[in-house]
Amino acid sequence: MTILEVENLHTVFPTPRGEVEAVDGVDLTIESGEIVGLVGESGSGKSVLADSIVGIVEEPGEVMEGDVRFHGESLLEKTDAEMADIRGGSISMVFQDPMNSLNPTLTVGEQIAETVRLHQDVGEGVSLPAEVKRKILGASKNSEAWRKAIEMLEAVGIPEPDSRASDYPHEFSGGMRQRAMIAMALSCEPDLLVADEPTTALDVTIQAQILDELRALKEEFDTSILLITHDLAVVAETCDRVNVMYAGKIVERAPADELFSNPQHPYTQGLLASTPRLDDPRDDLQPIEGNVPDLIDVPYACHFAPRCPEAERECYERPPDFREVGEETEHVAACLRRGPPEEQL
Ligand code: SF4
Fold first, then answer.
1. If you classify domain 101-189 with CATH, what class do you get?
2. N or C, which end of the chain has less CB nearby within 10 Å?
């Protein structure tokens, strides 16, 4: 069952020099219980796409066109209050920096218990001062919400969750804080978790553990996950399907195995050639020359053309359409030099 459908989404930021089209006609779907990767360099528009999906695009940015349907209902037609409810309930988010998302004045257990209470609609309200919350929550350590908080900490692999639930965020390591954020996000039992660079600040070992846990949690709670990262190794380890994004557009989409064994778009090939892989150690990594273009009135039809080793003159003039490529029918790439031989440049 499809739970999220993004259709022809355009998100624009006005600037004194013109409009930045950070998301430029993106289509994307997520099925129930699926982990979908969104990968690309920084500046490719991934985070703006995530913000557009969950309705938190920073002003003056605005979704100008397209639709985001969650369980078949348009999120763009919801009021701010309805969207706030959805974000606290059926859609949760995890960001790169857990310190900015955790309240330093409440213990980790109190914060997760509060999320559980709010989700169960028996909460004490988010606007209470920390002292008051602590008294209420501290007095209710036998409560269902506190027990659920400990269960969630255990589910994300926090050792001795009974005692660690009473620790403050600064008493947790970076990896444990990120797990606590995931525990908090999953404590509302969301249908969809949007995780934006959830492991970027962590060392490789902790990163691998957290990705393992995300996969296990997906199985346990049947949560769908949109995993946003610049790191192809992360999506290779974790995702069922992958979307590669470049300069505001999706340029390739495929099941994860297929994408890594048979990358087709020159940008994806460049990303792979520049990414170290645990299963294929190489010392000849090749960075992609140049930078993501300034997204104000990109003057060439294929946004990747100035960096593409295969570019021809027509690539600057004719926008590339999606074409079936590779072994799998679900594998598509937006490149004029791919697809059926009769269609290639
Ligand atoms: S359309 Fe042309 S420039 Fe764009 S990726 Fe394909 S070959 Fe490269």
1. alpha beta
2. N
